[in-house]
Amino acid sequence: MKNLSIKSLIPYLSAVIIFIILSLAYLSPVLEGKKLRQDDISRHKGMSKEIVDFREKTGEEALWTNSMFGGMPAYQISVKYKGNLIQYIDDIFRLGLPHPAGLVFLYMIGFFILLIVLKVDPWLSIAGAIAFGFSSYFFIILEAGHNSKAHAIGYMAPVIAGVILTYRGKYIVGGLLTLLFLALEIQAGHPQISYYLFLLLLIFGIVELVGTVKSKKYLPFIKSTSIILIAAIIAVLTHITNLWGTYEYGKYTIRGKSELTTDQENRTSGLDKDYATQWSYGVSESFSLLIPNIKGGATGLIGDKEYALKNVDAQYKDMVAGNANQYWGDQPFTSGPVYAGALIVFLFVYGLLVIKGRMKWWLLAGTILSIMLAWGKNFMPLTEFFLDYFPGYNKFRAVSMTMVIAELTIPLLAILALNKVLTDPSNFKQKIKLFSYNVNPFYVTFSVVAGLSLLFALFPSVFFNFLSEQEVFSIAQQKNSNPEYANQIADFYTNVEIARIAIIKADAFRSFIFILLGGVVIWAFSIGKLKKNYAIVLISVLILVDMWAVNKRYLNNENFVSKSKIERPYPKTAANKLILKDKDPNFRVLNLTVDPFADASTSFYHKSIGGYHGAKLRRYQELYDHQIKGKFNISVLNMLNTRYIIQPDDQNQASVIPNTRASGNAWFVEEVKVVKNADEELEALNDFDPETTAIVDDLFSKYLDGFAPGFDSVAQIQMIDYQPNHLQYQSNTKKDQLVVFSEIYYDKGWNAYVDEEFVPHFRVNYVLRAMIVPAGEHKVDFKFEPKVYRVGEKISFASSLLVILLILGYGFYEIRNYFRKEE
Fold it and tell me: What pTM did the predictor assign?
């Protein structure tokens, strides 16, 4: 609050205005009421349809949905956590801007806060915020619909700002900022990004500890660390409902450990290693930080880049344009590269030579770890170490995502280096010792980074081959299968290489030009030919033009559509209409016209055997892999109450096949088969009749003590009411009966009641529920009542209210002191 005046506020108000203008200008269709078409958001609408419909109808949260994978908790799909008041602060930071402009604004304002905390010139901080906010990956994920990821990235920088302030002795304001922004970071709801932020902060803490040991001043470090830990605990508590529910559920998903003892090769206590590292960044692909199309850019046809076909042989031009992929990197496919900006990478390398102290080593270590972890299967010693020994790391897939750390550390060090020069031009002339020579770090950096870009442009074939491993394997197969066409195959791929060389040359020259122009601006300032403010403006324009143009390759006006198309992403097909004529409230559909386990369209209209989600129950995944995917075990489909199967007909049109043998919602069985473990339980499904036999793991045999199954000719049970979180049945039997429910077993919330009295239930047939129903007429209820939600919401409300009161209290204290001094 010191020296507060309108004049002093101009740079900060200007920053907000500039960020708003840039966000809306780039995403200008939102001003026309259009919506960004995002594939993952379309899938989310399919995934969440039942949950949203229930919320709109009742005003309550279902917490469970039966529309995907037979049934699963809704924690990771669409649950509103009303107890967490931090969400209202989040709305303030995004200024109510239309989506996704609010997220782009958040990118920039968050990084701006970090630079201000590091005492960077406010006007230069605007340039730095643009450099960070317009990183290509941050726009690519918006196009894909990874909104929670983008949201969490937006709060990474201000969390770091709070931590740095705390370790610089600003205990109160630093601790409060850490608390506030960490609570917002967690509330954004992307644990993987938060985990990577933790890795970066861990490195920061280690660097601080090393410095503390050297200085032997332990008390400030202990105080700062204690404050950070307390802030972290409270921040976690503000969102404890979701975190607790996710942790509890995660142990039973594909991110948890399997109970099967077979097929354990290449598994961790979380995801399988192959699955976790499927999207691994190539080692040479890492140069995309400097040159965006170093591996061709995004997956797509070469024909989309007409300039690439200029030198292709005329007889192969159409074939190359329409059949060859412009991307030749190591990933299965990609929506675009991780590009940090040519000028920013140049300044980052410059910063490694001119910035002194802990800050440089922290940012360098974070960058190196980020890139090497992103290599994944291409650098397995490090990857396996983290997967096997670093807590929680094996719960996440797409290791290439660790590059978000580098996308923060690179522009941060770059702007710190530029700030040093702009603050004192004499820094430009200072020399450093390098290999026993006194050299100017600026010229060395220019020679290395600009020179490398120029070499890539002039002699790309020296550094790269232009075929992916998959293509090399495919070429060998094609030649072996069709030796008579070996020459034509070779000629085709030679022309593919010619096109790809043109792609890399264009972008390498482009990066060289931006580095050259930026270098000239800095050089002109250093010799007094250009004023500081003009230099900052020119650098800002170069950064913006560079990043804006690259981002437009992946997110542009063509990605926007009318609001109506977004709200109903899956048009109702004839097959959907036919099935919807069945008014039974609860049965399942298997759609074979799509990949059932990578599809959300079926869930938009029906309760699907499949679905689209990265955290499905492991047992259900194993059931699908072992009994449905390959064997198409009709008995398993029957027990899942699969009443309709959609499959392509002779004309490849969707046709509906009714399954008249579907077992229904619940049924009594005459026989119980007890097995020793999960392996035997899954194996027993190969040959059984679900309507007569229940397969029970020995773990649950205690529930059968004293019970003798038998046939009852008049026994009846039927569903009388359906809600996703409350199922009601009417039972009528002459004797105690074992009833199997075609519902997914998940005991961390589902409770069973007979005539409103709690009764135990247990798992049968690998994934379903069962219970003993007493003789007579009874009402049977299943209610989803997870303790994590009931208790968590109370904790969340109390802790988030505490955060708000602390922030408001400190703000009131500062304002009061300011006006007292004015008097």
Answer: 0.91
Judge whether 457 and 512 are in contact, CB under 8 Å. Answer: yes
Give residue 263's pLDDT.
Answer: 61
Q: 14-25 burial, b if ≥16 CB within 10 A, otherwise e?
A: ebeebbbebbbe
Tokens describing residue 206: 């280690």
Q: How far apart are CA 600 and CA 581, in angstroms?
A: 21
Structure tokens at 265: 């090769």
Residues 612, 666 contacting (CB under 8 angstroms) = no
Q: Which tokens in the block code for residue 509?
A: 């020259």
User: Which letter, b or e, does each residue of 681-698 get, where b requires 16 or more Cβ atoms within 10 Å of its Cβ?
Assistant: bbbbbeebebbebbbbbe
pLDDT of 614: 84
What would you report as the CA-atom Rg of the chain, rounded to the nearest whole angstrom? 30
Q: List the structure tokens of 334.
A: 């990609």
104 closest CA partner among 149, 151, 143, 34: 151
Structure tokens of 337? 């590269």
Find the DSSP H helices in 155-217.
Answer: 156-167, 171-187, 191-215
Return the sign of the alpha-carbon dihedral for residues 97, 99, 100, 106: positive
Q: Closest Cα to residue 551, out of 142, 128, 42?
A: 142
CA atoms within 13 A on the CB side of 701: 10
Q: Closest by alpha carbon to 740, among 689, 674, 666, 670?
A: 666
pLDDT in tens, 467-484: 988 888 889 988 888 888
Torsion sign over Cα 412, 415, 417, 419: negative
Cα torsion 579, 589, 584, 741 to 10°: value is: 170
Say if CB 696 and CB 673 are below 8 A apart: yes
Q: Which residues contact 124 (CB under 8 A, 6 or more apart)?
A: 115, 415, 418, 419, 422, 536, 539
Q: Are 605 and 729 in contact (CB under 8 A)?
A: no
Ramachandran sector of residue 3 (left: φ over 0; alpha: ψ -120 to 50; beta: rest)? left
Bridge partners, residue 52, by sequence: none
Interatomic CA distance for residues 41 and 147, integer angstroms:
8
User: Angle at Cα 406 formed by Cα 514 and Cα 181, nearest 5°?
Assistant: 115
Q: Token pair for residue 600? A: 């959300």
- Cα 763 to Cα 16: distance, rounded to the nearest angstrom: 56
Helix (H, G, I), strand (E, B) or coil at 249: helix
The whole-angstrom separation of Cα 85 and Cα 346 is 42
**What pLDDT score was predicted for residue 256?**
86
Do the beta carbons of residue 774 and residue 736 sit within 8 Å?
Answer: yes
What would the two tokens of residue 779 be? 């009402």
Low-confidence ranges of the chain (pLDDT < 70): 1-5, 263-269, 822-823
What are the E-state strand segments in 563-688? 588-591, 607-608, 642-648, 654-658, 666-669, 671-675
Q: What's the pLDDT at 294?
A: 95
- How far is the C-alpha of 52 from the C-alpha of 60, rounded, in Å? 10
Nearest to 442 by CA among 556, 349, 541: 349
Query: What is the C-alpha to C-alpha distance for residues 184 and 159, in angstroms, rounded to an integer?
Result: 9
Q: What per-residue string of b and e applies to 48-70 under the rule 16 or more CB within 10 Å gives b?
A: bbbbbebbeeeeebbbbbbbbbb
C-alpha–C-alpha distance, residues 217 and 101, integer Å: 45
Which residue from 26, 42, 9, 56 is spatially nearest to 724, judged by alpha carbons?
56
Q: Helices 122-133 and 6-26 meet at what angle, rounded to 10? A: 20
| Alpha-carbon gap, residue 791 to 799, rounded angstroms | 13
User: What's the rounded Cα separation, in Å, for the pair 815 and 684?
Assistant: 71
Residue type present at position 492: F
Structure tokens at 704: 């059968």
Structure tokens at 57: 């109808």
What's the maximum distance between 2 C-alpha atoms anywhere in the chain? 99
Quote the Cα angle for 354-356-357, to 5°. 160
Residue found under tokens 């008049």: 714
Token output for 651: 């004309």
